[in-house]
Structure formats: C-alpha cells, structure tokens
Amino acid sequence: MDLNQSLGEADELFEAQAHIYRHIFNYATSMSLGCALELGIPNIIHDHERPITIQELVSKLNLPITKTLHLQRLMRLLIHSKFFSITKFHDQENEDEKEGYVLTVASKLLLKNNNTSENSQNQPNLLPFANLILDPVLMTPWQFLGKWFNGNESTVFETAHGTPMWEFANKNPGFNELFNDAMASDSRMMSLVVKDCKDIFGSVDSLVDVGGGTGLNAKILLEAFPHMTCTVFDLPHVVVNKIETKNLKYVGGDMFCSIPSTDAVFFKNVLHNWSDENVVKILKQCKEAIQRKEDDDDGDGKKGKLVIIDMVVDENQDRHEITETKLVFDILMMVLVTGRERTKNEWEKLFLEAGFSRYKITPIFGLRSLMEVFP
Ligand SMILES: C[S@@+](CC[C@H](N)C(=O)[O-])C[C@H]1O[C@@H](n2cnc3c(N)ncnc32)[C@H](O)[C@@H]1O
Fold it and tell me: What is the pTM of this model?
C-alpha cells in the first residue's frame, strides 16, 4: 500500500471518529445549554443592556473568580452552537476595546419572563419547553430505550417510570404543570402567523380544539378571529377550573369516546402522540362531530373540516437539520407515548381510512405544517 492510499484511508477513519464523537456528545451541548438556563445567563445578558464581559458575567452570577475560565469555556461552546454571540465594543470613548456577550435570536426565545402582564405573557418564549425536555422525568427514559426494545411496555416512559406519561401527569401535579406550560410555550409561536390564516378560519363559526391543553391555542385563534366560538376539549384533569368567557368554553372528556359537535376540529401537536390505529379512531370521532353539526344546522356540507398542526417529514424538501429535528421528534414520540412523526403519504393514508376525501398541506409553522382535511 502506498503512503497516499494509507493517508487517504486514515483521513476517512479520522473523519468517522469526529462524526461519532460529535454525535455521542450531542447531549453535552444540551446539558451546557441547560446549565446556562439554570444559572439565568440569558436574562443577565438581556438586563445588562450592552455587551457583557466575562468578568461582569462572573460578578453578576456571584461566582468565585476561580470559575471565570470555566464559564468562558461554557460560553465558547454555546457561542459555537449559536445561543450567544460575542462582539467587540467600547464602554466609553478612549477606553480600550473589549469583548462582550450578546443574545442571539435563539437565546432571546429562552429568556425567563419575570413580567406578569398579559401582553408579555403572550410573547413567543420557549423556556418552558426547554425546561420540560431537559427535566429528569423526560431525560431518564432515554436510558431505558434498549431495555424497552426487549420488554413488553408500550412506551419507554413506562419502562422507566412504571406508568404511561398521561397517567404520570395526572398523578403528579408538578409534572402536569411543567408539561402544560411547555405545550403552551410552544403554542405561543403560533401567534406569529395565525392572523394570516383568514382563508382557513375566516368561514369557521365554531371550533373544538381537541387535546387543547390549557387553552392557549384557542385564545390565540380567538384573538385573530373573534367571530368564532371555541371549545377546548381535553382530559378532565387538564381543563378543570379553567376560566371561561363568552366565546371560550372548556369541556373535559375522552376524544376516543366522543368529540363535541362543531364546524371545525382543531388539533395541534396531538395526533403525532398516537399510533396509526388510534389516529384513525380519533379521526372517525371528528367526522361524526362535524356530521352532527351539519345535521343540526341543515348545512350544505361546506363548512366542516379538520385543521391539524403537526409535522410532515419530507427528507427531499427539508434542509438536513430540519429533517434531523423531525426524526428526533419521531423517536421522542416513541419514548414518551405511542406516536410517531409522519410523511405526507402516511398522513394521507390515515385521512382516507377514516373516511375523509381530500386534504391540503400548508407548511407555515416552521417545523410544523397546517393540514386542512375535508369530509
Ligand atoms: C402534546 S399535548 C398538546 C397540547 C396542545 N394541543 C398544544 O398544542 O400545546 C397533547 C394533549 O392531548 C391531551 N390528551 C391526551 N389524551 C387525551 C384524550 N384521550 N382525550 C382528550 N385529550 C387527550 C393531553 O392531555 C394533552 O393536553
């Protein structure tokens, strides 16, 4: 073997080594981010109102000076992964140039919201979602994935915690709150574009948000389309004691048994929680809910539809890292519940099997698409 050939092979193997290390250490980036959130670093940078030097950051965090270099290293990784950035600045004229940390678009979404005003509560913010995903209750099951493959439990969560996730949430109010806050924080992102969906919601008079959680989706929809009446339909322990208004109602129940009559059934991040067999059962309940409303109204069958916000896996169209995130969600659905992420063809099969005739996909919610499905 000549030297060039053996160097070529070595290069390939070193490249593979770097690839393996990058992936087996992915968790180090998420744990470092979790540490920055735990310490409250995004808020300290935000409140500083100009770039913050490492010494100022150490002082604001009340850390011993001996931790300066360690914090700098943590920040270096998080700058590399685009959670912070570093910029040169002058504090005052004639002063030496300094370097200071600033927030990026991503860390602005991870600020702790200390302001309780209604307006600031509605700003997009993903800190509760990050807190849920990095919580030990959701991190632990990943250690049991291999064991689950060889066992009989329906989810990895159950192998790890001895009970399915929805039951666990029912029995643990702290986790239930963490979960519902996380879902609500994810929903706030919807408010960025929902007002542009006149074609979709403009002609809908009544809407039932199935698996609607605390009702934030419904509130966002009502803000953009106040002519509608919305019913948030979820498990009884989720909707108990929620405050209703003239056009916002809460109903506790089980979507596998019956869904309240309505023009439109809305699902966000719900159907990906369930197996194909269960999705078809839920969709059939939706069809009945729409049909009952049609019969009551003596309608012409034009209003009824489903509006689904969920992921559509498209390896040909999406950028590599978007597909990777969707595939990670797919495994997450296997770990936590019995669901999955689906391609367009996989969704279509379920819609047709449940008796719906046509559908339209609009990819407007970032990782998620909006799907309208018609009887
Ligand atoms: C992943 S969360 C999504 C919450 C909300 N749609 C959102 O976008 O933030 C799924 C929701 O489905 C609800 N759920 C689970 N099983 C249900 C059932 N059998 N009937 C009604 N809702 C159910 C859960 O309580 C939870 O609120």
Answer: 0.90
